[in-house]
Design a protein that fits this description.
By secondary structure, this protein is an alpha/beta fold. The chain has one domain (3-166). It is 31% helix and 29% strand. It is built from 4 helices and 8 strands. It has helices at residues 11-21, 96-114, 123-138, 153-158, and strands at residues 3-6, 30-36, 43-48, 53-59, 66-76, 84-93, 147-148, 165-166. Strands 1-2-4-3 form a 4-stranded mixed sheet, with helices on one face. A two-stranded antiparallel sheet has the order 5-6. Strands 7-8 form a two-stranded antiparallel ribbon. A hairpin with a 4-residue loop joins strand 3 and strand 4. Helix 1 (11-21) packs parallel to helix 2 (96-114) and helix 2 (96-114) crosses helix 3. The longest helix is centred in the middle third of the chain and has 19 residues, at 96-114. The N and C termini lie far apart (36 Å). Mean pLDDT is 83; it is low at 146-168.
Length: 168
């Protein structure tokens, strides 16, 4: 890792995130873990592609435990105007370490896709990767979710709909 800053006291989560990311080529990754005070968000993060900076932040006073629900896949639905439905996953976040692992996993997924170590840089896949990291960190088995159909970038550009889901 090019740079690692842990401005939290959450060493258990920070050490786990470093071990998880050591499986990949992270020579260009700059990872910052921190606390924030924004009243409208309990956690936040971003991945800046220009310098491969990943920032994951949790609120100083998290309302624990809380339920986290995010879309993790989509499936076709021709009756809807947009042509798809989201598949949602929900987990209970019981500790600050778990919240930091989820948001860091989500944002690191965007870095891994940008550096072409993983494919499919969509928010639903980043959410799913965050949940997989959280399940691995918590010692649970992640729920098997449907796989996305792969298509070429040119085919994706021609299509205005989300990718189809393959159940298998």
């Amino acid at each position: 890792m090019k740079e690692f800053v842990n401005a939290t006291e959450l060493t258990l989560a920070a050490d786990w995130i470093c071990r998880k990311m050591s499986r990949y080529d992270t020579r260009r990754l700059r990872l910052h873990l921190k606390r924030h005070r924004r009243k409208d968000q309990i956690f936040s993060g971003y991945c800046r592609y220009s310098d491969f900076l990943v920032v994951a932040a949790v609120h100083q006073r998290l309302p624990l435990p809380f339920s986290l629900a995010k879309p993790v896949a989509s499936r076709p639905n021709r009756r809807r105007r947009c042509g798809f439905d989201y598949i949602w996953q929900e987990m209970t976040i019981a500790t600050e370490d778990q919240a930091l692992v989820w948001i860091a996993g989500h944002e690191c997924y965007h870095f891994l896709c940008k550096t072409r170590q993983l494919s499919g840089n969509w928010e639903t896949r980043a959410n799913r990767y965050g949940f997989e990291c959280l399940a691995e960190f918590s010692g649970e088995h992640p729920v098997q979710l449907p796989l996305f159909e792969k298509c070429s970038p040119s085919a994706r550009a021609r299509s205005h709909r989300r990718p189809r889901v393959i159940y298998g």
